[in-house]
Amino acid sequence: MALSFMERNDPYKDAKVCIIPVPYEGTVCFRKGAKNGPAALLKASYEVEDYDIELEREVIEEGFHVMEPLKIAEGERPEKVVEMVRLAVSKVFSDGKIPVVIGGEHSVSVGAVQALKDEDISVLHIDAHSDLRDEFEGSKYSHACAARRMRELVDSVAQVGIRSATRECIEYLDSIGKKDTMFFERNYDIDEILEILGDRVYISLDMDGFDSSLVPAVGTPQPGGLLWQDFIDICRAVGKEKEIVGFDVVELAPIADNPASDLVAAKALYKLAGYTLFSEDL
Ligand SMILES: [Mn+2]
User: Fold this and answer.
1) What is the reported pTM?
2) Kind and range of the H or E element at 266?
3) Residue 104 preceded by cis peptide, ω within 30
4) Mean pLDDT of 187-191
5) How far is the CA of 210 from the centre of ligand 1 (A)?
6) At what angle do helices 260-277 and 228-241 cross, to 10 degrees?
7) Protein residues with C-beta less than 5 angstroms from the ion ligand 1
8) CATH number at residue 47
9) Are 209 and 217 in contact (CB under 8 A)?
10) Is residue 4 in some structural domain?
């Protein structure tokens, strides 16, 4: 894996953004490949231009450091990986940098939220799947349980793009009285999202939240999802109105010779970094 983002890797001490690659897939149940997501995203980032037309600046000049990928043993249990992510994100955040986790399967996001849970954060969760199962195939830390674990750690979660859920998941949401925090398919309302989220926000972007025509390279694609402009509209609004404290881009499972999805992931990371660092310009 080439350790650079947009062909550079600034020294840790000079970077405002720290990318933490987590090449993990342990509980993936359909199409495999998420462990290759970080390498594909970093490679595709070479094609992202430094100049952000919307922000009228080179966001990359703020300093982006790419850490060594977490060293994960073959067949490692998700609990262990979640703990590794928690430690890495805690360190980066306490050093005053924006932690950016790139996966890897979605279970890794739970470690980031564990690390930041005392920072009074809400979570914006973009995904095709509700991920609200209490347990899946014997694990509470399966990718299918990611949002359930996140909900247990923070006060409010807004889930956007959801178009695959079980009866159990919906009943769970009803039981905690937070049904209004789930938006199906593209039926979101930005004002409502902003109302649900508190002042400080962690964004968890599962790449399958995008429509499968835009991002086919995921483990479990679903039609009916967000298009690029939806993502931009939602995240720009959150960046403008809230303080983004960190984010992740997970579940990219690259398809050989089809880099389009990888580029969407790389550009999504760059846009989110811009919205995080230049909130006042939005
Ligand atoms: Mn998903």
Assistant:
1) 0.97
2) helix 260-277
3) yes
4) 96
5) 10
6) 20
7) 127-129, 206, 208
8) 3.40.800.10
9) no
10) no
